[in-house]
C-alpha cells in the first residue's frame, strides 16, 4: 500500500499518508476562501504539525506517534489573517505586517519552504521565507528571501524581472549572497517574439548552473517558431516533427555534449531517447518509455553497452507509482536482457527493439519487491515542484534518556531541492543526487543543456528554466493571442504551473481524456452521500461530485449539499444569476421549484456557445451515475423540470479567470464523460506587440 487519503467533512483533502510503514504524513490546511495554505507545520518541533507525526502527545494524543517526523513543509501567505487554526496547533508561522506585502487579489505574497539539509543530515531542516512582488499585470517582478532558523535575516538569494507588452522577459537579475551572478538582458528578433540572444556582463565563474552571456544571433528559429539552433550550447540543428515534437538534436563538430534522437508512438508520447556521444559509442545509451493506454508513464528502461560483458543490455530503470497523482518511482535497476548488437527502438528496426531473454515485468517486480531503499516518494508543493524524495526505508533512533528504547523514527531521503522563480535549481538548497522529475513535476532532460535541472521536457514542449522560456510556440497560442507564445505560466510561476506545456495549470483537453478513462471504470450508484458518508460510502450525488472537482484544484465548496455550496460562492467566490456569464469550469446550480437542489460542472462551451455540464444524476444508459448534458438556452437541463439559478466560481488569482476544472479532471476519483473545449478561457488583456505570433 503506497498511499492513504483522508478528507475534511466538507470535502477537501486533509491528509495523505505515504508507505505501508508510516513513512510520512502530510497534513493540508486551507484559507477561508478555500485556497491552499500549506502542508505540515512550519516548524518540526513542538506542537506545530497538525498531524503531530512522530509525537507521543499533541492534538491527536499520540495517534500518529509511529509515523516518521515531517521532512518538509511549505506555507503560503496571501494577507493578514488569511488563516486561523481552530485547534491548539501552532502550525502557522506568524509574520508581522512589515515582513511581507499584504495581497488580497489571490497572488501569493510569500512562501515558506522547509527542506532537509543537502548534506544528508535528516535532523537538520532549513526553513526559508521567499517574498514576492508583482507588477500591475500580476507578473512577478521580484523575489527576496529570509532565513527563519533563528533571527530573520536576509538570506542568499534574490531576483528581479521586467517584461515587454507581450510578456517577453526583458531583464532578469539573480543574486546569491549579495553578489549578482546574472544580469540578463533579452534581445529579440525585431518585430517578433523570437529570442535572438541573452546578454550577461557578469562573470561566468559565479555560478555553474546558469547561462553565460551570448553573442548576437545565438538562437535560430524555423518558420513555425521552433528553436532551430543554439550556438552557446553547441546545438547546430534541431529537427521537429509536424506535431511540434523534437526529433533530432545535432551538436556542432567538436562538442563534448551528446546528440539526441527522439521517437514517439502514435499518441505522440515519447517512445525512446537515444543519446549518442561523438567518438565514444560505448558511452552512448538509450532510454525506452512504456506508457499505459491512457497516456500515463509506467516505466523507463535503459539500453547501453556493458563493458565488462562486452554485450548490449536492457535494464529496467524507473517504474512510476500512482495514487491520486504520481506518487514517485521505483528504481528497479534490474538487467532484463542482453544482445550482441545495438538495440534498435525504431518502429521499423530489426525485431522492433525486442531482445532475446528479456525478463518479464513480473520478474522485475519480484526482484524489487523485498528491497528497501529503491522506492522514492515525492514530497511536493502546490506547484508540483519536487522538494524532497523519501525512500521506503524507515530508520529508528534510540531514546536520548534510555537508549534501549526507540525514541523516534525518521525516513531516509535521497533528493532535496528548491527552485528560483521560473524553475532554475537553487544550488545552495539542491543536492547532487539525481531524480527524474523536478520543477512543476516535469521530467528533466539534462542531456540537452548538460546542466542538472536546466532543461525539461513535457507532453507538448521543451523548457529552459535558466531563461524562463519555452523552445517552441504554445499549442494554445490562438487562445492566448495577447501573450507571446513562449511565455511560461503568464509570468506568474508562483501561482500557475504548466506541467504539460500546453496550458498553465493544466490542459482541459487532456483532463477530458482522463475523465473518459475514469468513466469506463465507474460503477457507483446515485444516492444521498452527505454528512458522515461524504466520500466514503461508495455512492455519489451531485454535490459530492462537485466538491471533489473543486478540491482537486485546491478549493472548497463549503458544504455537502448544493444549497450550501451556492451560498459559499456568494460569500467567498464569484456569483452570477445570468446564463451569459457562465464560464468553463464554473459550478452551476438548478432548482426544481423548492430551492437549490442540483449542481453540475461546466465541462465544455463549444464554438457556437452551447454549454455542456457534467454531473452526478440517475443515469439509465449505463452503470455509474456521472453523465454530461447540453443545457437549454435558458440554462436549464433539458430532460427534467428545472430552472437555472446561478453560476459560481472560486476566486483563484488576479492573474486570470482560468476555469477551476482543468486540473481537477486529471486526478478526481469519479467518472465523468467530459469533453472540454478550452477556447473560451480568458487571460490578461495585455497588449500584443510584433507582426506575428512568433
Q: Layout of helices and strands, plus pairs?
A:
Layout: E1 3-7, E2 13-18, E3 24-30, E4 36-39, E5 73-77, E6 110-116, E7 125-134, E8 140-147, E9 154-163, E10 169-176, E11 179-188, E12 195-199, E13 219-221, E14 227-230, E15 235-240, E16 246-251, E17 259-264, E18 270-276, E19 285-291, E20 297-306, E21 311-322, E22 326-339, H1 361-368, E23 375-380, E24 386-398, E25 406-416, E26 443-444, H2 446-449, E27 455-457, E28 462-464, E29 469-470, H3 508-519, E30 525-526, E31 539-540, H4 542-551, H5 562-572, E32 574-576, E33 587-591, E34 596-605, E35 611-616, E36 626-630, E37 643-649, H6 661-667
Parallel strand pairs: 30-31
Antiparallel strand pairs: 1-2, 2-3, 3-4, 4-5, 5-6, 6-7, 7-8, 8-9, 9-10, 10-11, 11-12, 13-14, 15-16, 16-17, 17-18, 18-19, 19-20, 20-21, 21-22, 22-23, 23-24, 24-25, 26-27, 27-28, 28-29, 32-37, 33-34, 33-37, 34-35, 35-36
Helix pairs in contact: 3-6
Task: Kindly describe this structure.
This protein has 694 residues and is mainly beta. The protein contains six helices and 37 strands. A twelve-stranded antiparallel β-sheet has the order 1-2-3-4-5-6-7-8-9-10-11-12, with no helix packed on it. An eleven-stranded antiparallel β-sheet has the order 15-16-17-18-19-20-21-22-23-24-25, covered by helices on one side. A hairpin with a 6-residue loop joins strand 8 (140-147) and strand 9. The radius of gyration is 26 Å and the shape is globular. The two termini are 48 Å apart. Residues 347-359, 505-515 and 652-694 have low confidence and may be disordered.
Amino acid at each position: 500500500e503506497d498511499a492513504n487519503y483522508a478528507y475534511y467533512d466538507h470535502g477537501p483533502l486533509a491528509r495523505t499518508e505515504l508507505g505501508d510503514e508510516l513513512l510520512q504524513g502530510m497534513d493540508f490546511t486551507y484559507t477561508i476562501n478555500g485556497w491552499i495554505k500549506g502542508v505540515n507545520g512550519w516548524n518540526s518541533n513542538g506542537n506545530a504539525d497538525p498531524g503531530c507525526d512522530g509525537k507521543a502527545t499533541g492534538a491527536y494524543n499520540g495517534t500518529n506517534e509511529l509515523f516518521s517526523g515531517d521532512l518538509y513543509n511549505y506555507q503560503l501567505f496571501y494577507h493578514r489573517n488569511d488563516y486561523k487554526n481552530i485547534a491548539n496547533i501552532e502550525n502557522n508561522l506568524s509574520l508581522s505586517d512589515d515582513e511581507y506585502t499584504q495581497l488580497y487579489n489571490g497572488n501569493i505574497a510569500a512562501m515558506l519552504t522547509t527542506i532537509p539539509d543537502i548534506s544528508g543530515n535528516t535532523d537538520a531542516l532549513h526553513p526559508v521565507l521567499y517574498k514576492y512582488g508583482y507588477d500591475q499585470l500580476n507578473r512577478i517582478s521580484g523575489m527576496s528571501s529570509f532565513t527563519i532558523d533563528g533571527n530573520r535575516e536576509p538570506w542568499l538569494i534574490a531576483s528581479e524581472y521586467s517584461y515587454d507588452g507581450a510578456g517577453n522577459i526583458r531583464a532578469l537579475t539573480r543574486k546569491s549572497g549579495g553578489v549578482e551572478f546574472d544580469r540578463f538582458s533579452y534581445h529579440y528578433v525585431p518585430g517578433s517574439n523570437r529570442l535572438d540572444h541573452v546578454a550577461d556582463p557578469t562573470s561566468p565563474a559565479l555560478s555553474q548552473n546558469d547561462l553565460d552571456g551570448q553573442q548576437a544571433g545565438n538562437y535560430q528559429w524555423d518558420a513555425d517558431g521552433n528553436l532551430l539552433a543554439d550556438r552557446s550550447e553547441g546545438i547546430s540543428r534541431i529537427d521537429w516533427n509536424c506535431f511540434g515534437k523534437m526529433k533530432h538534436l545535432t551538436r556542432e563538430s567538436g562538442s563534448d555534449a551528446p546528440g539526441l534522437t527522439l521517437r514517439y508512438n502514435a499518441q505522440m508520447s515519447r517512445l525512446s531517447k537515444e543519446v549518442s556521444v561523438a567518438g565514444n559509442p560505448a558511452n552512448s545509451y538509450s532510454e525506452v518509455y512504456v506508457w499505459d493506454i491512457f497516456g500515463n508513464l509506467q516505466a523507463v528502461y535503459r539500453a547501453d553497452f556493458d563493458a565488462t560483458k562486452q554485450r548490449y543490455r536492457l535494464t529496467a530503470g524507473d517504474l512510476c507509482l500512482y495514487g491520486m497523482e504520481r506518487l514517485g518511482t521505483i528504481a528497479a535497476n534490474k538487467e532484463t536482457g542482453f544482445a550482441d548488437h545495438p538495440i534498435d527502438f525504431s518502429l521499423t528496426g530489426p525485431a522492433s527493439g525486442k531482445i532475446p531473454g528479456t525478463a518479464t515485468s513480473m520478474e522485475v517486480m519480484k526482484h524489487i519487491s523485498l528491497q528497501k531503499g529503491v522506492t522514492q516518494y515525492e514530497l511536493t508543493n502546490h506547484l508540483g515542484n519536487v522538494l524532497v524524495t523519501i525512500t521506503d526505508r524507515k530508520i529508528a533512533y534510540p531514546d536520548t534518556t534510555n537508549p534501549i528504547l526507540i525514541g523516534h523514527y525518521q525516513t531516509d531521503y535521497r533528493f532535496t531541492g528548491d527552485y528560483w522563480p521560473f524553475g532554475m535549481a537553487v544550488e545552495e538548497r539542491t543536492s547532487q543526487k539525481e531524480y527524474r522529475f523536478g520543477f512543476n513535476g516535469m521530467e528533466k532532460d539534462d542531456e540537452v543543456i548538460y546542466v542538472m535541472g536546466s532543461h525539461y521536457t513535457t507532453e507538448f514542449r521543451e523548457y529552459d528554466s535558466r531563461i524562463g522560456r519555452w523552445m517552441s510556440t504554445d499549442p494554445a497560442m490562438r487562445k492566448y493571442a495577447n501573450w507571446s507564445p513562449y511565455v511560461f505560466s503568464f509570468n506568474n510561476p508562483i501561482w500557475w504551473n504548466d506541467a504539460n506545456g500546453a496550458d498553465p495549470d493544466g490542459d482541459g483537453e487532456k483532463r477530458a481524456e482522463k475523465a473518459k478513462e475514469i468513466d469506463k471504470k465507474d460503477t457507483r450508484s446515485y444516492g444521498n452521500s452527505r454528512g458522515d458518508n461524504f466520500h466514503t460510502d461508495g455512492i455519489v450525488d451531485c454535490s459530492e461530485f462537485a466538491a471533489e472537482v473543486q478540491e482537486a484544484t485546491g478549493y472548497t465548496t463549503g458544504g455537502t449539499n448544493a444549497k450550501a455550496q451556492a451560498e459559499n460562492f456568494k460569500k467567498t467566490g464569484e456569483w452570477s444569476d445570468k446564463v451569459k456569464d457562465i464560464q468553463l469550469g464554473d459550478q452551476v446550480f438548478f432548482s426544481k421549484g423548492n430551492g437549490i437542489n442540483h449542481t453540475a460542472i461546466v465541462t465544455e462551451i463549444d464554438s457556437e456557445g452551447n454549454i455542456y455540464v457534467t454531473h452526478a444524476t440517475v443515469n439509465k444508459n449505463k452503470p455509474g451515475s456521472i453523465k454530461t448534458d447540453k443545457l437549454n438556452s435558458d440554462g436549464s437541463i433539458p430532460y427534467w423540470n428545472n430552472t437555472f439559478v446561478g453560476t459560481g466560481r472560486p476566486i483563484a488569482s488576479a492573474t486570470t479567470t482560468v476555469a477551476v476544472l482543468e486540473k481537477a479532471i486529471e486526478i478526481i476519483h469519479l467518472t465523468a464523460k467530459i469533453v472540454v473545449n478550452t477556447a473560451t478561457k480568458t487571460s490578461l488583456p495585455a497588449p500584443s506587440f510584433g507582426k506575428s505570433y512568433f
